[in-house]
Amino acid sequence: MSNIAYIPGDGIGEEVTRQGIKVLNYFNDLHQLGLKFEKFDLGAERYLKTGDILPDDVLNKLETFDAIYLGAVGDPRVEPGILEKGILLKLRFYFDQYINLRPIKLYKEEFCPLKGKKLQDIDFTVVRENTEGIYAGVGGFLKKDTPDEIATQEMISTRKGVDRIIKYAFEYAREFGKEPKLTVCDKSNVLTYAHNLWQRAFKEMGQNYQDVKQDHFLVDAITMKMVRNPEIFDVVVTCNIFGDIITDLGAEIQGGMGMAVSGNINPDSISMFEPVHGSAPDIAGQNIANPLAAVLAAAMMLRQLGESRLADQTEKAVVTALENNMITSDIGGELSTDQVGDYLVKTLKSNE
Amino acid sequence: MSNIAYIPGDGIGEEVTRQGIKVLNYFNDLHQLGLKFEKFDLGAERYLKTGDILPDDVLNKLETFDAIYLGAVGDPRVEPGILEKGILLKLRFYFDQYINLRPIKLYKEEFCPLKGKKLQDIDFTVVRENTEGIYAGVGGFLKKDTPDEIATQEMISTRKGVDRIIKYAFEYAREFGKEPKLTVCDKSNVLTYAHNLWQRAFKEMGQNYQDVKQDHFLVDAITMKMVRNPEIFDVVVTCNIFGDIITDLGAEIQGGMGMAVSGNINPDSISMFEPVHGSAPDIAGQNIANPLAAVLAAAMMLRQLGESRLADQTEKAVVTALENNMITSDIGGELSTDQVGDYLVKTLKSNE
Ligand SMILES: CC(C)[C@H](C(=O)O)[C@@H](O)C(=O)O
Ligand SMILES: CC(C)[C@H](C(=O)O)[C@@H](O)C(=O)O
């Protein structure tokens, strides 16, 4: 039995995750998975009404769940950063979700903005460190609001933190890798402290994974390579901020936010799964938002809960929807958000 | 009269800058510009022989010049980072070259890795802060080489440093902008100290430039936008590390390192101009390296020295070479490095 905390959040969050829940409920009934959902209203509405972002009692309650399924947070009425930091980053840090897993996978050739790339050319995974680096929140101001102002922001890498993410990435490459190969991405030629630690950690950990090919790219060079030769990547491990940047680039080469998924994982605690896209307030409530990323996030959650077979089936259904153009208008179809969800469940049924 | 310090550096550096010098000498003779070149042997050879990277007496001597024309540094026999930091970064910091100017311009449609982009779609300039941020070199280790090790790396933004680069970028947009529009790229939703300062500085400076459209992108989102809709950019201003990353991505969408140019500028002191590509030791000495970026760097130097008309003529000659396929094999031609240089001079002559 698994208890799932369900946070639809803002904007299109509710609409798109509803389709993920449809798929999860279908499996639940069919296979008696014992999934239970409880909905939490966090996001702009609550914040604007009560001033609460993520109150302690909600945090304490969330601790009793097995996983979190999140839609999107963000609202034009709220200053940018408040909800993202107060909910998304807060949960990542509170539950020590040190792994941010971001598959970069092209599902349909015509989605790709790059010339001449085939499906198999864009199929790798970024493993992003998710709890430290320059996201630590450490820093300050000196002489604020004067011409002599100085602001500092600390990038902090701990050996423990870097070791565990690199180890996870090696294990991941070994288990799921096509080759398997692990590429570390850093800026060690300039960040001679924080990324010197990364370099040493990678080399030492690599000794235990001689069966995994090992490669290195500087962050500037990797953006070029991702555009020119994405086929050379299998698994990429990197720090928090560089992971943030290159996974968005990755989302774009896999066809845009419509398909991009993010797992915030702590293998020993509560993991959180979300589509990468935002709350898209401009199209919220119109039943036209693309739910595929939310459904793929549900699939990733299934995998984390030990249901790999059902995760595979879900991904296969998404591919079928794409092949048959049973998709929303943003990616070239004509269906509503709900219709896409229904089609996916129908496809799963007929594949049974 | 202008004295140019000429640092060919390592690998292909000498071959490619020789073509830039050819062009400069041609103009020099024709227009009596009074350019004088003095060559400085810095780079791997000298370092390996003497241990010197950039000795003080060389630095002192460089101070007497008007500009520096640099090829490339880096050699497989030298640990990565040593020469880049000891020469490139050292010069940027020593001469306080706080502006890193990187035009992102597509010169030939077929060079572009993106689908459906025309020449005019990829034509913007990144203005990168070049003397602070996380490049400050400030940081340290605690409990080094133990499992409890912590490494820190400080991102330092000063109001003075951020103000001056944003001001330059606004002025640049006003003078050269197509629209004109200035986009600031940061991660202010997470870097609540360093990039909060950036946000405030941008907004305040923007008051003085109401005629310049003003826009903002988070660094992760801008990588997507650069791939999807590069046509929306005119001038982009950003911090040191994000500039490093997005200008490499920019180089790729403009057709790869073969065309990318970098100006390290201090309007009141000595500026340095270089092709972005590395020393490419694998093809060094074969007279096959592509000299166009080095020639475009020479053009940028001419512009900085007040010779805009000659800079324009040089860029036009490069376009002619591309149109007539009078280029090296890496970008689809059959000429040698030297032949490209000769062709450019011939073209300039016939355009006279
Ligand atoms: C919303 C923001 C704080 C977040 C991040 O920077 O990590 C997002 O960009 C992401 O990648 O999940
Ligand atoms: C060589 C390296 C130190 C340098 C940088 O990081 O600035 C380079 O990547 C650049 O962009 O000029």
UniProtKB/TrEMBL annotation, chains A, B:
<comment type="subunit">
    <text>Homodimer.</text>
</comment>
<keyword id="KW-0464">Manganese</keyword>
<keyword id="KW-0460">Magnesium</keyword>
<keyword id="KW-0479">Metal-binding</keyword>
<keyword id="KW-0100">Branched-chain amino acid biosynthesis</keyword>
<dbReference type="InterPro" id="IPR019818">
    <property type="entry name" value="IsoCit/isopropylmalate_DH_CS"/>
</dbReference>
<comment type="similarity">
    <text>Belongs to the isocitrate and isopropylmalate dehydrogenases family. LeuB type 1 subfamily.</text>
</comment>
<dbReference type="Pfam" id="PF00180">
    <property type="entry name" value="Iso_dh"/>
</dbReference>
<keyword id="KW-0432">Leucine biosynthesis</keyword>
<dbReference type="GO" id="GO:0000287">
    <property type="term" value="F:magnesium ion binding"/>
</dbReference>
<keyword id="KW-0520">NAD</keyword>
<dbReference type="InterPro" id="IPR050501">
    <property type="entry name" value="ICDH/IPMDH"/>
</dbReference>
<dbReference type="GO" id="GO:0009098">
    <property type="term" value="P:L-leucine biosynthetic process"/>
</dbReference>
<feature type="domain" description="Isopropylmalate dehydrogenase-like">
    <location>
        <begin position="3"/>
        <end position="344"/>
    </location>
</feature>
<dbReference type="InterPro" id="IPR024084">
    <property type="entry name" value="IsoPropMal-DH-like_dom"/>
</dbReference>
<dbReference type="GO" id="GO:0051287">
    <property type="term" value="F:NAD binding"/>
</dbReference>
<keyword id="KW-0028">Amino-acid biosynthesis</keyword>
<keyword id="KW-0560">Oxidoreductase</keyword>
<protein>
    <recommendedName>
        <fullName>3-isopropylmalate dehydrogenase</fullName>
        <ecNumber>1.1.1.85</ecNumber>
    </recommendedName>
</protein>
<dbReference type="GO" id="GO:0003862">
    <property type="term" value="F:3-isopropylmalate dehydrogenase activity"/>
</dbReference>
